[in-house]
Specification:
Immunoglobulin-like, TIM Barrel, 2 domains
Amino acid sequence: MRVAVAGLVLAVLVAPAAALDGRRLRVRDGRLVDHLRREVVLRGVNARVAGVFDVTFPDGRLPLEPIPVFDAGDAARMQQLGFDFLRLPIDWSGLEPVRGRYDPTYLDRIAAVVDACEAHDVVVLLDFHQDAFSKEIGEDGAPRWVLDLLLGPTGYPFLGGPLGDLNARRVAPAALAAGQRFFANDAGIQDAYAAAVAVVARRFARSRAVVGYEIMNEPLVLGVPDPEAVLLAFHRRVLRAVRRVDPRHLVAFEPNVLRNATNAAPIPRTPFPDRRALYAPHVYTDVFDGQTYASGDPAELLPSMANAAREAAAWGTPLLVGEYGIDPGAAHANDWITAELDLQDRFRAHAAFWVWEETSQGRWGLFEGEDTEPGGERIARTTALSRVYARAVPGTVVEHAFDAQANTLRLRWRPGGRGPIELFVPARRYPTGFAVRCNGAPIDAAPDAVGVVRLRCGRGKGEHLLELAPAARADAITR
């Protein structure tokens, strides 16, 4: 009996592991690993937050749009849906409304969101956001003094709310001219930007709940001979400023925003000049590229993700899909979400869905209004996003395949780390429970209060296989 028991690869339930520590994540062979050398995956959402996403004016102009509140209840609900990651858009205009004066209360509002997330094991990427360059002429981004410096005090229109013409603002002459002059580094403006990013990095350098800093949302570089070189030089400038005050957290960088329409970016010739970086394109295939996903064919979505994986590999970084999403009224919208998640699993991508809550524009959120409003949850949308995935695996994942129709997971990995496997298993998908096999042998596995299953599976150096299925379909798990 001893020999028989020893011969089985047993899994045991383990005590809860320590929460993810953003300061201790590292990049190894293009994968993100924690301090136990477990391969980890960040899956979550973007959230625009009142008081942080800066769309108000002190001169009497109407706010551009209503922005939802974010509190501990939001963080708790994210955790219950299986999200361990928040991409938080922050604005230069809110941080430095007057040149050289950084607003401590704005930093405190960011910190309040980070603290709420930390209490619920959600790590935060602080994203320096812009859309159409500035709230003065677009939606958000640079403060007014930057426009005065780049375009002159009378060289741009003063726009206010309500915001109903964002697409027109993105391509308006003032927005394009400001962007061109920013990336030409007129008046040394990039140094001022880098200094602002460093202020944020200094404030959160010791935070375990911060995973890192994103250099700029959707940069647009046009009208120069080598836009890729110009963008990389900008990224290097900001990176140097961050590393002077924070050598530990990750830095995320995006390609030229034109990728949103082309579904591909140029392959770099050399790796990114920092070993703690994430390549963070946005994936809106069949959304912003003139298509509509009317066919519902997942094959249409493959090229963009395959290209993104190649781009990340060339940069020598993990792949983070910083934004992906689709109008809930679009045909096959939830099928689109499922297909994108399948590809993220396949290419080992981290991701943040756009957007948590929304009370304006296209209302792409997981909730119609605030998440506390009765009946506001878009159940089909949250169910598509809330699915089984391995959050941490002690080794290198070889295969991670979730079948959303059958609610089955197949996970193969090569051992190389320590600590337990962590799976998120949403109760809504398993009303009668679920069954797990480790290398063909049935094992006990039970979720904690928020749906996380921690277990050990496999001994030795060979590949290991974990399979999960609804309890009623336990016989569907292959041996």
